[in-house]
Amino acid sequence: MTREESIRSGLNDVRDGIVLACGQSGRSVDEITLIAVSKFMSVQDIETAFNAGQLHFGENYAQELLVKASSPQLAGKPIRWHFQGGLQSRKVRDIIPVASTIQSVDRDSVIDELARRTDPAAPVDVFLEVNTGGEAQKSGAAPANAERLCRRLIQIPGVRLKGLMTIPPFLEDPEASRPYFVALRRLRDELRARLGASGDVLAGLSMGMTSDYKVAIQEGATVVRVGTAIFGARTP
Ligand SMILES: *Cc1c(COP(=O)(O)O)cnc(C)c1O
User: Fold this and answer.
1) Is the sign of the CA dihedral 230, 231, 235, 236 positive or negative?
2) Could you give the 3-state DSSP secondary structure of residue 8?
3) How much distance in Å is there from the Cα of 58 to the middle of ligand 1?
4) Pocket residues for ligand 1 (CB within 6 Å)?
5) Ligand 1 centre from 23 Cα, in Å?
6) Which pLDDT score, from 0 to 100, does residue 44 have?
7) C-alpha dist (Å) from residue 130 to 16, 115, 200, 209, 228
């Protein structure tokens, strides 16, 4: 297989997996957004996936995102860029003009910067990242802080709070992720009720990666972030 064939086949496999998981859980495929996580992958790889119909791409590093998004091969394309990496507040200003969605908002300093830098005329979609596993070294807000941070985000005119995001502790067995996905769904339901959120405010759940995206869909994911199953292993 050529590199292009392998990306197209990976993408098709993931699309099939999404159809399967939706069928198992009585959900519609239209409810799921697939983000192709393209960190460390080339502009050409992204173009291959785009030409196969993929519109959403996820990047973890501000500099890499900016270089790729402004490349001649990709700059004019209607790609939706998702920033999903560890977010330093000083990078927020650079990311906002490029990213349609920031998946990894998790602290006050980043929210301060969003309040300063976003434009109500061109709002940015945001997910609050929650550390459902309680791992000390992981990014993400503690579940106990989620309500306060969501209240802040909802008040910023240039921000649309779309939902919650999580990265569970990595374990080989995809079933091991299920309790964390359930926890995120319950937290979302509770926060929506407490904040009186309606429509698509705080309605989304961004959860599930290569190993566990089917389980995530069974538990209500609206966004899955898949890299390896589409592009193959990463060599940073
Ligand atoms: C790298 C990454 C992914 C994709 O991981 P795969 O296991 O390769 O699918 C998804 N989400 C985040 C936040 C990541 O950093």
Assistant:
1) negative
2) helix
3) 8
4) 37, 39, 60, 84, 167, 209-210, 225-228
5) 24
6) 98
7) 28, 20, 19, 16, 23
Q: How far is CA 70 from CA 4, 89, 102, 149, 172, in A?
A: 22, 22, 18, 32, 36
pTM > 0.90: yes
Q: Where are the domains of the chain?
A: 3-231
User: Looking at residue 236, what is its pLDDT?
Assistant: 67
| Tokens 């009720």, located at residue | 193
Amino acid at 174: P
Expressed in angstroms and rounded, the spacing between residue 210 Cα and the centre of ligand 1 is: 7
What pLDDT is attached to residue 36? 99
3-state secondary structure of 91: helix
Decide if 213 contacts 17 (C-beta within 8 A).
yes
- The dihedral built from the CA positions of residue 183, 189, 195 and 197, taken in this order, carries a sign that is positive
Q: Which atom of ligand 1 is nearest to the CA of 229?
A: 9
Rounded Cα distance, 15 and 174, in Å: 18
Place of tokens 């390896």: 228
Beta strand 101-105 with 33-37: parallel, antiparallel or unpaired? unpaired
120-147 pLDDT, tens digit per residue, is 999 999 999 999 999 988 899 999 999 9
Q: How far apart are CA 58 and CA 99, in angstroms?
A: 9
124-156 b/e (C-beta count within 10 Å ≥ 16 → b):
bbbbbbbbbbeeeebebbebebbeebbebbeeb
Residue ranges of the chain whose pLDDT lies below 70: 236
Q: Which fold has domain 3-231?
A: TIM Barrel (3.20.20)
